[in-house]
Every structure is written in structure tokens, then in C-alpha cells.
Amino acid sequence: MNAFYNNSTNWQGIFYSNKFNTTHNIALDGGDARFNYKVNLKYFSQSGLIEKTGFENYSMNMNMEFKPSSKLSFFGQIRTSMARIRSGSGNQVLQSVVNSNGNKSTLQPGPSFLLATSDVLSSLNIRESSGPKNLSANLNASYELAPGLSLQTSGNYTYDIETQDKFLPAAANGQFARIDNFYGFTSELYNRNNLTYTKPLGQHNLFFNVFNEVYFKKRQQSYTRIQGTPNDQFEGPSGYDGNLSRGPCIEQLL
């Protein structure tokens, strides 16, 4: 039988479809002028219009303010988020494979493991588990030493993780199954201390400020690509020969 006979393939329908977005939010707050707090939980889901794409995000924000006296105050905040990104055969900006194949002639047969080209199969059969994770904590304290003279200190810690795991079946990659793995993290510790003095002089204001800042930054990234895994069902865990690995590792301390 001729696979190219009497076809009417809807390539737009293969790569594109109607999707929906959802957002759920829960907020809790309370307290008084001396002590107050707020907590917010959020879930966001966006199904991509292009097949095998989408975005999910879980986030939590918390903050509190404490004023034990008129001269002393504290403010703390914690923010965290965890996301899942599916970018298909492209990246988060471009989808060149979908763009070129979505405009094919309807007379051509639809995608299958026997007839379709590897770029079409890579868009429809790639399996991906990727997404960033973030944690940020902040604490500020202020104390009024004398009228117009105050001392402030603030500290912040941020930790970001970026991961990406992709598995491409052999039929979609020239008969060689492929695993791509990326892992990277960035951490930053920051501290600022400053002393300020403000005094009105008639129609003018005198302002004096002294401060110091300290940063500690660290970054590491690693990428591994494994070609030719046993079959399309085995996705891991798997080992590799370090002498043949093309995945670099970058570590930086600032």
C-alpha cells in the first residue's frame, strides 16, 4: 500500500490544540500594629498550545513584622517556588521544528515511527522533566539610637536550582536513544549595615549615612549527554564512561 495516497493530514491539529490555564490562591493574614503576619500559597498551571509544552508553578510567600517598642522593629520574609517546564523539542523561546513541520503539505502521511522524519517524532515523543526551584529569606532590623540617629541591618540568602532531564526515543533520534541532563545552582549571601542621621535645619535637611555591604556568591553547573541507551523504555538511572562524556562541569565562587 502507498502511504502517500489519498492523505488529508491536519498538521496544525497534530502540533497545536486548545488548552486552558488555572490559578489557585490561598491567603492568610492577621495581627495588630505590634505584630502582624501574612502567608500566601499559589498554584499556577498553563498548558502549552504546542504539543509537549507547558508550565506549572507552586509558590509560597510569608512575611512578618514585629515592633516590640517604638524604637526597635523587625521585618522578615520568606519566598519559595517550585516550577515544572516542558519545552518540547525547542527551548523556552523558539520552536523551530514545530514551525517548519506545522506547514507541511496535507498530502503527506501523518507522523508514525515508520514514515515520519526524526524531527517530527522528537517533537511528539520527547519526555521531559525540568524546572527551577527557588528559596529566598530576608531579615531586616532597625533601632533608633537617638532622635534622628538610627542603625539598620539587613541580611538576605538566596538559593536557586535549575534542572533539566530529557529523554529522546531511538526512533526519533536516528536509532540512538538519548538522555540529556542539566543541573545547576546559584547561592548568594548578602549583608548590609548602615548608620543614618537626619536633622532638619530650617528649610534644609541634613542627612548623613555610613554603610558597608558583604556578598558571598557561589555557582555550579553540569551538563551530561548519554547516547545509545539500551532501549526506549529504559530512561535511567544509568552510568557512563567519564573518558567519553561530553558533559562539562563549571564551579565558581565569588
Question: What report would you give on this structure?
Answer:
By secondary structure, the protein is mainly β. It has a single domain, classed as Beta Barrel (Maltoporin, Chain A), CATH 2.40.170.20. The chain is built from three helices and nine strands; from the N terminus they run H-E-E-E-E-H-H-E-E-E-E-E. A hairpin with a 5-residue loop joins strand 2 and strand 3. The longest helix is centred in the middle third of the chain and has 8 residues, at 118-125. The relative contact order is 0.12. Residues 90-98 and 114-118 have low confidence and may be disordered.
Termini separation comes to: 65 Å
Specify the biggest β-sheet.
9 strands, antiparallel
Mean pLDDT: 78
The SSE string, one letter per element, is HEEEEHHEEEEE
Q: What is the name of the CATH class?
A: Mainly Beta
Overall 3D geometry?
elongated
- What is the tally of beta strands? 9
At CATH level 3, the topology is Maltoporin, Chain A
CATH superfamily: TonB-dependent receptor, beta-barrel domain
In the sheet with the most strands, the strands line up as 1-2-3-4-5-6-7-8-9
Task: Provide the CATH architecture.
Answer: Beta Barrel
Q: Any low-confidence stretches, pLDDT <50, length ≥5?
A: 90-98, 114-118
Count of distinct structural domains = 1
Secondary-structure content class: mainly beta
